[in-house]
Specification:
It holds the Pfam family ABC2_membrane_6. This is ABC-2 type transport system permease protein. Keywords: Membrane, Transmembrane, Transmembrane helix. The chain is mainly alpha-helical and about 270 residues long. It has one domain.
């Protein structure tokens, strides 16, 4: 019961803080709309780059444009959800430097909820919308022999991918506590991770694919389940049932990230400012 009450308290605190930032952002409606549209356009430039590539080639690593678009849509949509919910975690280092992180520790609300909801920005929905549009087009265009398991696998991929990226955000924030900032390191695994997953695993070396599968299991966001969906062999020979373990991988990643976060908080020493 105690654990449930902590979770409920955290969700309530997150909702209240995020709502405050949403109301503040909506004060100037024209500025909000312009910022959201700008964010939508900027995030779409990555896919424009892929389209330009396919204007010169018929396939990329043996994958067609709709197949690469499927990887892109899954990666961007999953990451966009995590970025919307926890994208402010990368400001933790700045808070520790200026001493404002200490004020979060004495407030009657879970620190993770406060950091995650800090500067909540609805404009980040632009990334989710753009990724969803590409994903929808890809699903309508790919040559897949659809079955019930494959249909159900699509939303499972998106939700599990969002949870995996969320765990990376939290683990990165915990690392910032130990390193006293290093937001760039966190961004290398979050923003860098989603960029990596936008391209087929066949274009990368097997050592990198193994690392993204067994060390930092970002491959379970889209590479592994999408290979099953498209009837393609995975480069390092995983069994077909591995496509369905993304939820378990997500749970494991979240548990490890939570442990890292609690360890980081216990080790934190105030800046004294």
């Amino acid at each position: 019961m105690g654990e449930r009450s902590v979770v409920a308290e955290g969700l309530r605190a997150y909702w209240l803080i995020a709502g405050m930032w949403v109301r503040a952002g909506m004060t100037y409606r024209a500025s909000f709309v312009a910022t959201m549209v700008g964010n939508l356009v900027m995030t779409g430039m990555d896919f424009v780059g892929i389209l330009l590539m396919f204007s010169q080639v018929d396939s990329l690593g043996g994958w067609s444009l709709p197949e690469v678009a499927l990887l892109y849509g899954l990666s961007v949509t999953s990451f966009g959800i995590a970025d919307l919910v926890l994208g402010s975690m990368d400001v933790l280092g700045a808070r520790m430097r200026d001493g404002s992180f200490d004020t979060l520790l004495v407030r009657p609300a879970p620190v993770l909820a406060q950091v995650g909801a800090d500067r909540f920005a609805v404009r980040r929905l632009g990334r989710v919308v753009q990724g969803t549009v590409v994903l929808g087009w890809a699903l309508a265009s790919v040559d897949v022999d659809w079955s019930v398991p494959k249909v159900l696998l699509v939303p499972v991929m998106v939700l599990s991918g969002a949870a995996i990226f969320s765990a990376v955000f939290v683990a990165g924030a915990a690392f910032q506590i130990f390193a006293q900032d290093a937001a760039e390191v966190q961004n290398a695994f979050t923003y860098g991770g989603t960029t990596l997953l936008q391209y087929p695993p066949s274009v990368f070396g097997k050592d990198l694919v193994r690392g993204a599968t067994f060390v930092l299991p970002l491959a379970f966001v889209n590479w592994v389940p999408a290979a099953y969906l498209l009837g393609r062999p995975y480069p390092i020979g995983l069994p077909s049932w591995a496509a369905f373990v993304s939820p378990l991988v997500a749970v494991g990643c979240c548990a490890l990230a939570g442990l890292a976060w609690r360890t980081g908080l216990r080790s934190y020493r105030s800046t004294g400012s």
